[in-house]
Amino acid sequence: MTASGEEWTGPWDLVVVGHGAAGLSAAASFLERFEGGQPRVAVLDRAPFEERGGSTAWTSANFRLDDDGQLDPAWGKIVTETAGDEVNAGYVDTFYENCVDTLNWLRQNGVRTLTIRNAALPGMFSRHGYALQGGGRAFVEVFTELVQARGAQCFYEMDLVGLDREPGGPVTGVHARAADGSERHFAARAVVLACGGFEGDRQKLGQRFPGGETLDTVSRGTRVNTGRGIDAAVAIGAATAGDFSGSHLEPVDPRSEVTEPLVSSWFWGILVDPEGKRFMDEAATSFDMQFDFVAKEILARGGRAYAINDASVRSGNPYFEFLNATDVGPITADSIEELAEKLGLDAAALRQTVDEYNAASVDAPYDATALDNKHTVGIAPPKSHWAQPLTQAPFEAWPVGAQICFTFWGLKVDGTTHVLDTADRPIDGLHAAGEITGIFHGNVYPSGSSVLRSLTFGRIAGQEAAQALKAAALA
């Protein structure tokens, strides 16, 4: 509903700012754990009802689990190594200890998960694929009904303005602006911030890294994430964490208007810039990391590149159609020169790039299903795997740009979602979960973990808030 009349008046036992994986999980677990009568819970969404759910509603919700269905051990290793002295060890440990219970909890509450055999790409962490059946939208629909059935009220078109906090004391409420421009006050005993980073604010992005102001979001739902939750918490003394200029980007087809139109065929072919030259090792690491690196490098070089393949790469790759999720077909040609003309590139430059690449490819078997070590020698940049000479027509290309999924800088939390102040003390009554928390450093994100950690820590935030209110009542 959209707030009107006096229906927003408190006090509320819990106000959740955010309507995605973290927010709805927090509301559901709080309602489940609360003791002492029927709790009053408000869930605020900046979007209208028809577009509720933020980023979660648009994602396929893939999970970074290993072959045993546990959180991939490499996730913690990558996060720890890239964070160095700033690693949030308690957060990492809590994720490993709770993510499987969270998945079981989802299933118990009507959300189904899928296991897809042999869906992983070469060099990935698992030979299985795991995801929510129906993607993130299915979760949003099921859990919206669930929390409302348990007594929560959902308010849409509510834009966070600020938080109330007694000096040195607990958070006591939320100020939000309704669609009609009026300000609403939600007096609250506890607050969970689950409203994402600032990926939807191009001005802030441009202040953090070159080209950020040009970035569109991977999903339409992500555009409502403007960093208001971070700003509001910082204004009352919260500390921040995570890579200040870090973000998770994806390489996409700029011609497409569908959600997440990934272009990934460069993994087995080559990437060239607008001058027709290669500029990076297209297969330096496994796909779950490489596609982010590719998008960042493309953005740093002006935001446009071209993925080029030939008939031999396509015919020898069982993943080819799966990888290019764009709804716009490739640009094809019978020669490299013709392809260059269609792309608006210098024909001689592209011809030279392809010839040098072909000549540098070692004489070794090509295996698109494994890290085959068919590499280049004698050229810079090198290519570590799948350096298959591009000699067989038709040649094909996809334009590649970058879109943003989420930002890395956010609120500093302990291992159980309590927001910390600048002296590393928990702020009473304030929790944060999901992409609003600052965890990642070094501009490196192990993919397939965002929704899973949002669900896990959203659930923990609700539990912690309920437990704190119970302790306060006993005291």
Q: Strands, helices and their partners?
A:
Layout: E1 14-17, H1 21-33, E2 41-45, H2 73-83, H3 89-108, E3 113-117, E4 128-132, H4 135-149, E5 153-156, E6 159-165, E7 171-177, E8 183-187, E9 191-193, H5 202-208, E10 216-217, H6 228-235, E11 240-241, E12 247-252, E13 270-272, H7 287-300, E14 305-309, H8 311-315, H9 320-323, E15 331-333, H10 336-343, H11 347-360, E16 395-407, E17 410-411, E18 418-420, E19 426-432, H12 450-474
Parallel strand pairs: 1-2, 1-9, 2-5, 9-19, 10-16
Antiparallel strand pairs: 3-4, 6-7, 7-8, 11-17, 12-16, 13-14, 14-16, 15-16, 18-19
Description of the structure:
The protein is elongated. It starts with 13 loop residues before the first strand and ends with a helix. It has 475 residues and is of the alpha/beta class. The longest helix has 25 residues, at 450-474. The chain has a 6-stranded mixed β-sheet, with helices on one face. Helix 1 (21-33) packs parallel to helix 4. Strand 1 (14-17), helix 1 (21-33) and strand 2 (41-45) form a beta-alpha-beta unit. It has 12 helices and 19 strands. It has helices at residues 21-33, 73-83, 89-108, 135-149, 202-208, 228-235, 287-300, 311-315, 320-323, 336-343, 347-360, 450-474; strands spanning 14-17, 41-45, 113-117, 128-132, 153-156, 159-165, 171-177, 183-187, 191-193, 216-217, 240-241, 247-252, 270-272, 305-309, 331-333, 395-407, 410-411, 418-420, 426-432. Helices cover 30% and strands 19% of the residues. The protein has 2 domains: 14-246 and 408-474, FAD/NAD(P)-binding domain (3-Layer(bba) Sandwich); 249-403, Alpha-Beta Complex (Flavocytochrome C3, Chain A, domain 1).
